[in-house]
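The freezer alarm interrupted the setup, so I double-checked each line after restarting. Inputs confirmed:
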Amino acid sequence: MIWNTWLPLLMVASSLLPGLVIFGLAEERLRLRTALNLLGAVAKLVLVGWMLWGVYNGQHYETRLPLLPDLELVLRAGPLSLLFVTLSAVLWLLTTIYAIGYLEGSPHRSRFFGFFSLCVTATVGVAMSGNLITFLLFYELLTLSTYPLIVHRGTEEARRAGHSYLIYTLCGGATLLLGTVWLYTLTGSLEFTPRGFIHTVGEEHRLALVIIFILMIGGLGVKAALVPLHGWLPRAMVAPAPVSALLHAVAVVKAGAFGIVRVVYEVFGVERAAILGLTGPLAVVAAVTIIYGSLRALFQDDLKRRLAFSTVSQVSYIVLGVAIVGPVATIGGVVHLVHQGLMKITLFFCAGNVAETLGIHKISEMNGVGRRMPWTMAAFTVGALGMIGAPPIAGFISKWYLGQGALEVGQNWVVLVLAGSSLLNAAYFLPILHRAWFLEPPANWPHEHDFGNKETAWTLLLPPVITACLALVAGLLAAAPFSPLEWAQLISRREFYQP
Amino acid sequence: MRVESSTLMAAIFLDVPWAVVLILLPLAGALVCFISPAVAKSVVLLTVFANTVSVAGLAWQVMENGVYRHAVGGWGAPLGIDLYADGLSLLMLLMTALVGLAVSVYSTAYFDQPQAARFWPLWLLLLTALNALFLAADIFNIYVTLELMGLSAVALSALSGGKDALGGAMRYLLATLLGSLLFLFGVALLYHGFGSVDIIILGQRIVASPIVWAALALITAGLTLKTALFPLHFWLPPAHASAPAPVSAVLSALVVKASFYILLRLWLEFFAPLGVEDIGTLLGLLGAAAVLWGSVQALRQSRLKLLVAYSTVAQIGYLFLAFPLAVGSNVTAWNAVACLALSHALAKAAMFLVAGNLLRFGGHDRIADLDRVVQRLPLTVAAFALAGMSIMGLPPSGGFVGKWLLLEAALIQGRWDLAAVMMIGGLMAAGYVFKVLGFAFTQANIPQKSKAVPATMEWAALLLAVAAVLLGFLAVPLLALVGMGMPFGSSEVGP
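Predicted 3D structure, all chains:
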C-alpha cells in the first residue's frame, strides 16, 4: 500500500506543521492556536491508533528519503517505536491541555507552543528513527527545541539553567556523533536491525567496538541522566511546569533511555554486547544512578527538585532492565518506559497545580493540601505509590518483571538494589502524602489563586486525573491485549529475542 | 503542439551561451547603475534575478552536454579566452547567485541614497568578477578576475567611510594586493616553465621540478593570505566587521571562498597528482589551528559583528582540513568541502544580515545588551538560530552534512587529531552561537530607543538561513551536481 510508505512521515508532520504555523500566529489568536494544537495532537493520536492496529497485524510502515550518498533518512514504525510514539502522542495531548490552562494570560505563548510542538516532533522522530543517523538528527533537534522552553521565563536563573543544559547535551550529542561515524566507517551500515548489525565487524576491532559503545552510551546517558551525567536535570526545573512534565516523562530523558535500548538491542545486539563485557558495567552504572538519585531526592525540600532526582533514579530502571540481559528483565525495562512516563507526568502536573493554585513550592509548606485540593492530591498519591512500587499500580509491574528477570539470569544483587530503591522511594514520598492528608492546613496559603468553588481550573485538573487513572489501569489490566505490558512482550518476541 | 513548443523552448534554452551571459550581464548592469543611479535599484534586482536564471541554464547545459567549454569570440586555446564550467564551477556560481540574490534584496532596504549610489555599481562589478573567476579556464584570467574582485571588495568594505572602516579597508587592500602579487609570480613561473596558462594543458604538462615547487609555494601563500587562513587571517576581522552588513555578508560568504576555489582547483589539477602530501598536511594543520583559534576568538568577542567575523576564520579552517584527508582516492573529503562551503556561505551571509538588522534596531551590536530581542525581532533571531545550527554542524543542516562527511573521511584515514579538532570546533561554535541566543531571551527591561527594521531585511536573512538548513536534505542532488565532470576525480590518480 502506498499509504504505508508515507504514514511515518505524516506522523512527524502532524506536530511539525501546526508548530510552524503557530510560530507565525499573533499572541492574541488564542482560539486558532488552541485549535491547531489540539488538531495536531488528535491527528497524531488517530495515526497512532491506526498504526498500532496495523503493526499488531503484521503491517509494515516505512518512509525512506535520501539524506547522504549511501545513507537514508528512515522513519519506521516497529513495535518498539510505536510504544514510545503512543506514549508521546497521548501525553502530548494531555500536556497541551494542561499547558493551555497553565499559561493562561502569560506572555509569549505562540513561541512556547511552537517550540512545544517542535519538541514533540523531535521526540516522535527519535522514536521512529530506523537508523542511527536519523536518530541523531532528531536527537539533536530535540536538544535545540527544548532549549527555548527551558529559558522560556527569561530570568537570569533560566538562562543559566539553559546554559548548563546545552553544555551537557551538546557534548553528549558530539560523543554520540563521533561514535556513530566511527561505527559507520567500520560497518558501512547504520540500520537498526533486530539483534544488532555489528557481527560483520572482525575480532580485531574489539577495542574499537568497546570504545564506540562507551561513546554512544555516554552521549545518550546525558539525556537519560545517568550519574554522573545528570547535573543538568535538577537545574532545568526552572522551566514552566508543563515543560518539566514533558521533559521528565516523555521527551528528553526518555529519548536518552530509548536510545540506550536501541543501541544495546538493535545496534550491538544484547548477546554481543554481553560478550564484549559491556552490559555488566552498564548495569552497575544504572544501579548506582538508581540509588544515588533516590538518596539525593530524600534531602530536597523543593517539590520539583525532589521529583527531578526521583526521575534520575527511575529512568535508570529502564537502563537496568536492558543491562540485565534476559527476556523478562527486558520486558520490565521497556514497559517502565511507559509506566514511569505516566506516573511521573502525574506527579509533575500535580506539583504544578499546587504551585499555580496555592503558590506552594516547598514540601514543608504542603500541610493539609489534600483537604484543599483532594482530586489533585489523589492523583499525586496514585503516582507516588506507583513510584514506590505498590500493587496494583503500574510501577509494581515494572519492578516485578525487573526483579524476576534478574533472578532468572542469576543476578541476585539487582533485587537488593530494587528493594533498597523502593525503601528510599517510600522514604521520600510517604512524608509528602502524610503531610498532605493528615496534617492541619495553615490559615493562609502562600499565594492563593481564586478559582471560585472549584479546587482549580479544569484544564489543570483533568490531565493529572487522567494520567493517574491510566497508571492505575496499566497496572490493573496488565494482562489485557494492547496494555503496555503485552506490547512490551510483543516487542521482546519480535525484535529482541527472536528464536 | 504544446509538446513541440516546449521542446523548442528547451532547445533555445540549451543554446544560449549562459556562461557568457553570466559575465556580460552583471557587467552591463554595473555600467547602467554607474551612469544612472536613479534606476539602479531595479536594474540590480533584475540583474541578480537574471543571474540566478543563467546559473540554472548553465547547470542544465552541463547536465545535458557534460562539461562546458566555450571559446569567447571563436578564438580557441591557447590564444583566446576560454570559459570552462564543471560541477565545481557550478557550485560556486550557484552559491554566488543565491547569496547575491538575498543580499541585493536586503540592500534595497538597507542603504540610504548617497551610499546606495556607490554600492550598486561596485556590487555588480564584484559579481562580474566572481562569475568570471569561477568560469575562467586559464590561470592568467583567474589572476585578472582575482584582482578585479579584490579591488571592488576593498572599495565596498570602505563604503561606510568611518575611521574603523577606512583602517580595516586599508589593511584589507594591502593583504589582497600582496596576495594577488604572489599569485601572479606563481602564474608567471608556470607559464615560463610549461608554456601555457590553460589549466587543463598545464595539468597535462606539469612535472615535478623546482619551478613547480616555487610556483606552488607562491600560489599557496598568496591564496591562503586572500582566504584568510590562520595565521594570515589578521586582515579579515576588522575588514569584515567594519563594513556595512550586506558587504560583510558578501565578503565572508563569497569573496574568501573565491580564492579558496582557485587554490582547490589548482590543487586538484596541478599539485595533488605530484604527490605533495607535506603541503597538504601543512594546510590541514593550519586549518586545524584556524578552527581552534577562530572559535576561541569568537567566544571572547563582546560585539556581534566581530564574533561573526571570527567565526568565519574558524569555518575557513574546516575547508582546509580536507587537504590532508583527501590523499588517496578519497572523494568524501572534497564532497564535504562542497557542502561546507555552500552551507557556510548561506549561513554566514544570513548571520551578517542579522547583525545588520540588530545594529539598525538597537543602534549597537553589544551582545550582552540584546535583551528581549527575541520578542521584538523574532524573524531575525530565528534567522540567527537557524544559521547557527548550520555553523555548529547540528542536524538537520548543510553544515551537519559537511561535518559528517569530513568526520567520516577523518576516521577512515585514522586522523583522530583532526576528528577531535572538528568536535571541539563544533562545540565552541555552539558556545558562541548560544552566547548570543541566550542573551536574546533574557528579560531585563532596558528602555532602548529602537528603530524599525524593514520586513525585507528580516526576510532576506531568514530565507538564507532556511536555505542553509534545507541544504541538509538536499545533499544528494547537490553532490550529484558537483560531481559533473568529476572535478574531484583527479585525486584518484594521486598516490
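Quick read of the result. The first helix of chain B runs from residue 2 to 15.
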